[in-house]
Write a structure and sequence with these properties.
Number of domains: 2
Structural class: mainly alpha
Helix content: 55-70%
Radius of gyration: 21 Å
Length: 180
């Protein structure tokens, strides 16, 4: 999709300069062009919830503050992608997949992965709803501080929940590396 078509999707919803700013930050951070649509949706949600309060801006303009907010959100998304990619590469290495995509030994099948899935399911079904939610968010790449922000609590609360989740995983002998 061209830049013009992408910006046209938000015409009449947001001030045009805000969406141009978001797209310029997406491009500057070198997100692949195929992801621009998704990144613009993410930025639109940030812009939608953004409220400029001049009294709290220490003399900064709305442009400067929105720039910082969008930039921080995109950096967070980039970090999540990096964490996810590292976890994915680690699993591939554990399965014996080489960097070129070839397998060392026998190619893994879905049956090889099934016991781990069943163990994780067994461990998580014993958890209270709060800790199930935390486990799900961790699996999506969110870190402790991000989850604490979502629940408006201290990171220590989330950290204690993570320890209880790990204990449940250890009880069914699931590798604790899943929570890192």
């Amino acid at each position: 999709m061209t830049e013009e078509k992408l910006l046209a999707l938000y015409e009449g919803v947001f001030e045009p300069w805000k969406m141009r700013l978001a797209l310029s930050r997406i491009k500057a951070m070198r997100f692949p062009k195929r992801d621009w649509g998704d990144m613009m949706q993410e930025a639109a949600m940030v812009i939608w919830s953004f409220e400029f309060v001049p009294a709290k801006a220490n003399g900064a303009t709305e442009l400067t503050v929105l720039y910082a907010v969008i930039n921080q959100h995109l950096l967070d998304l980039m970090r999540k992608r990096c964490r996810y990619r590292k976890r994915y590469e680690k699993v591939l290495r554990q399965l014996g997949v080489h960097e070129d995509g070839t397998f060392h030994g026998e190619e893994p099948s879905s049956e090889m992965l099934m016991p781990v899935t069943m163990d994780v399911q067994t461990a998580t079904e014993k958890l209270p709803d709060f800790e199930k939610d935390i486990a799900f968010l961790l699996s999506q790449g969110y870190n402790c501080n991000e989850i604490a922000g979502m629940y408006e609590c201290e990171w220590k609360t989330i950290n204690r929940a993570m320890q209880r989740i790990k204990a449940c995983f250890d009880a069914v002998d699931v590798n604790g590396e899943l929570l890192k």
